[in-house]
Amino acid sequence: MFSFAFISRVTIFARRSASSSPFPLSAATNARSIADYIAADNIRVEQENESLTEQAREYAMLALRLDEGVDEALFKRRYGKSFGEFFPAATKLLADGFLENMGGHIRIPADKAYVANSILELLL
Questions:
Q1: Are 104 and 68 in contact (CB under 8 A)?
Q2: Which of 6, 11, 47 is nearest to 27 (CA)?
């Protein structure tokens, strides 16, 4: 069971001196309750519509940062192409040892983690 706590009121003041301060006197308060917050219509919803290519790139970028790496079977089911077909640079990175295939998972070897950003840049 999770316990949620929230601050019912926060006031922030910044002093304004005529000489040097770039911050005007300001105050901000949170709604006293979640019901008040919702009633005030302060909720902003944003939605991104990503193409299949963008989704595949993001999945690969995030999964390669994990020890498990990219599950090749899952990748093919989701995106309709194999990892190598989607990312042609993967073949060279695998051959050069910057990626490895471990039981159907493509991943960055532990000894190459310090250059993971560069590997991702070459791949994506």
A1: no
A2: 11
**C-alpha–C-alpha distance, residues 64 and 6, integer Å:** 35
Q: Of 96, 102, 85, which is closest to residue 119 (Cα–Cα)?
A: 96
**pTM higher than 0.85:** no
Per-residue pLDDT reduced to its tens digit, 18-75: 445 454 544 556 667 778 777 776 666 677 788 889 999 999 999 999 999 999 999 9
Chain Cα centroid distance, residue 62? 7
Q: How many CB atoms lie within 10 A of CB 45?
A: 4
d(CA 93, CA 107): 11
* Segment holding 105, helix H or strand E: strand 105-107
How many other CB atoms are there within 10 angstroms of residue 70's CB atom?
25
**Beta bridge partners of residue 8, listed in sequence order:** none
Q: Hey, which bits of 24-72 come out as E strands?
A: 70-71
Helix (H) or strand (E) holding 74: helix 72-79
